Amino acid sequence: MTELATMEFHPQPQPGEAKPWAFPAPERTALDNGLTVLRCHRPGQQVVAVEVLLDAPLDAEPAGLDGVATIMARAFSEGTDQHSAEEFAAELERAGATLDAHADHPGVRLSLEVPVSRLAKGLGLLADALRAPAFAPSEVERLVRNRLDEIPHELANPSRRAAKELSKELFPAASRMSRPRQGTEETVEKIDAAAVRAFYDRHVRPATATLVVVGDLTGTDLDALLGDTLGAWTGTPGEPRPVPPVTADDTGRVVIVDRPGAVQTQLLIGRVGPDRHDRVWPAQVLGTYCLGGTLTSRLDRVLREEKGYTYGVRSFGQVLRSAPDGTGAAMLAISGSVDTPNTGPALDDLWKVLRTVAAEGLTDAERDVAVQNLVGVAPLKYETAAAVASTLADQVEQHLPDDFQATLYRQLAATGTVEATAAVVNAFPVDRLVTVLVGDASQIKAPVEALGIGEVTVVPAE
Question: From CA 312, how far away is CA 169, in angstroms rounded?
Fold first, then answer.
């Protein structure tokens, strides 16, 4: 009888000692023209990320011209006094650079990524776009047409349609937050090159802007590069602009956006809560993550794993506008989709989850997993220069100290289960939630009304 060969196993690899990590701290300076500069040296990051924040918020858009900030943001890369739109795009490509821009409630942001070897060229193009954008009538007209083409597609998207309706429900009609960020068909079609130029002249200047630069700056004289490029950007000092407080009505109610024949229902449940300046923020982040931040969260475990109603339900907090004086706010929301016949049962179980958390609290195990996921993944999350630059820009935009993110991770690690439970219960009180459902009203209205979670209103899908 042949003897079987003995298999020899190699020793199992053991993890090494964890390296200490903290969110990188930037160096803060200013150019002679008033432009604030945050720089962060990240060895090995050969693609430099640059963010520019402009104090051109959506509530500064002229009445009847919602969307002009978005058109202006898109027009920054459509030609300057030095290059036509086609030439500008070609110059970016030659530099291996990308330039994106978008407008949101706090202001307009431009994002540049460029190899460090082409940083001078990339900063020069960025400076030209900010200093002397062409805003050619033909290019603005094209951007307006493109935006008008996007609107029907957004209205056809259930999640976008739900977000539009929730904003309309939560905020007063006079508030810019109640209306779509990028404007409506009625407002966008009124935008022309003169309107874009007027908005630019009134709100874009270096004295009220901030530049964030992140990457491997070894051997790079960044001060000289900035002086030769963005240092040539000039403008008036500007005056402080009053910021209206965020107000919202979170009276418990349900709005069904009727889509006859829909095979599933898109749900978005939300209210307005504290922003990152509130001391409850770390506990709120942790509690919200335990509730619906990942596949192992409470909502997913019940609605997805146990009941099979959905592919996933998430809870989150998204800052709308942040202010140290307490006038800022964040959107606290739960989102997902369920099959049409189970819309009523899914909402019933969702409310049961919220009531159970309020009555029994989160578990220590849920808290520990959340801390591990939120804090432990941070070094990987911020591995790229773009991720670091974006977060630093968020901090500036939200009037937070430069060490906010580093402090937040320490606070998350120190937050206990009881604190996280209290925060998430306060964030999602069962009787103060506005529920938007995009689905077939003929099938879901009666089951939802039977739940007693608020008055039910049906609106057309448009």
Answer: 25
Q: Which two tokens stand for residue 364?
A: 């220590």
Task: Tell me what pLDDT residue 4 has.
Answer: 59
Overall average pLDDT of the 23-28 stretch? 95
What residues contact residue 49 under an 8 Å CB cut-off, 6+ apart? Answer: 111, 112, 113, 212, 213, 214, 215, 384, 385, 386, 388, 389, 390
**Considering only CA atoms, which of 374, 390, 318 is closest in space to residue 24?**
390
Placement of tokens 């996007």 in the chain: 150
Q: What is the pLDDT of residues 253-308, one digit of tens each?
A: 999 999 999 999 999 999 999 999 999 999 999 999 999 999 889 999 999 999 99
Rounded CA-CA distance 114/46 in Å is 9
Q: Radius of gyration (Cα) for the chain, nearest Å?
A: 25
Dig out the tokens for 206 from the structure. 């270096």
Nearest to 125 by CA among 150, 96, 147, 103: 96
pLDDT value, residue 300: 95
Question: DSSP letter at 278?
Answer: S
CA triple 263-267-269, angle to 5 deg:
170
Closest C-alpha among 50, 98, 95, 104 to residue 77: 98
How confident is residue 13, by pLDDT bands cut at 50, 70 and 90?
confident
Q: Which of 351, 171, 164 is nearest to 266 (CA)?
A: 164
The token duo for 143 is: 């951007």
d(CA 287, CA 289): 5
Average pLDDT, the chain: 95
- 455 φψ region: left (φ > 0), alpha (ψ -120 to 50), beta (else): beta
CA–CA separation, 213 and 196 (whole Å): 27
